[in-house]
Batch of 2 targets.
Target 1
Amino acid sequence: MMKEEHRQQVEEWTGMKCGDIVFDSNVDNWSRYTSVFNDRIIGKKQLTFLIEDDCGEIFGYYLNTEIVEKYKERQETDSKTFQFNLQSKNNRLKQPMKFEIKDLKSGSILLSQKRICDLISLGDIHLFKEVEKNQSYCWQNEDYFDYHGIEKALCGTIYPKKFIPKRILVIQMK
């Protein structure tokens, strides 16, 4: 999923090297009630979340601060947090783009309780676990991130339209 040029771009944006893969939906459990997603990311910091959808978009979210076990409460973040698009379908964006955070509270991560909800929010990206993954969507809010005035910049669709995640990869930067 991560081409060499994508890896280089993420490393340039974060100022760090790609390290361990913390979660990969192709091999790790991403199912309702039994997902290991939260367990794999809690206690970690400097995480890059990559999403590839069924249309070929590759986009994501970078969180610099440590993820703590808080449910229904947004995680702390800082000015190093950003969202990005590495690959747009039909060459919608001419190059990879980084979208800087504007609102530290609203642009942060929100974990779901493992046994109750299937939703994970990464800034403006809202991911549903395997059984309801076709309900995933992007809420492109210019108050939260700077999208440079580009419509559908993040993932090629805007709520209420949905996207279907094909693969989710979480990489810890070092």
Target 2
Amino acid sequence: MEHRFVGILVNDSWYRAIPRGRMYHESLSNYEHAGRQHGVVPCFFRIKDIRPGQREIVAYVRTATGYRKCRIPAPKVIHNRTLYTKNRRPLRDIRALIDDGKLVFNEWNRYGKHRIHEVLREDPSLREHLPETRMATPDNILKMMETHDQLILKPN
């Protein structure tokens, strides 16, 4: 059976942690679960592991015995989870992949959580599913504590 791969572009420190299967800020199992739901296999690699025109890459893929480096067809769809802010080279490399016909989601991912919430609120079909959200000023926190049993505070 041939697998359809979706690429998850990660940074070096995340890549080194994949064989252990546990990440600090990310859930590999969520990627695996979503992949099963959509009939794709997530593969994890770094920007230096892929180049425009490349037919195959080496990426981490979940196997029966854990995450292993495998040679696979270069994915046509890539989800960018990296944070390249100081070094512009990776941003140019991502742009080159797009120019090569790859579909890259989250090409630029430096948007604040509050801004993303506002964008999602603009879609009527999503609005009712979003939690009440406010900027964490002292007054807003007190108001939210009066109306909710639990709060989640996140840095923006």
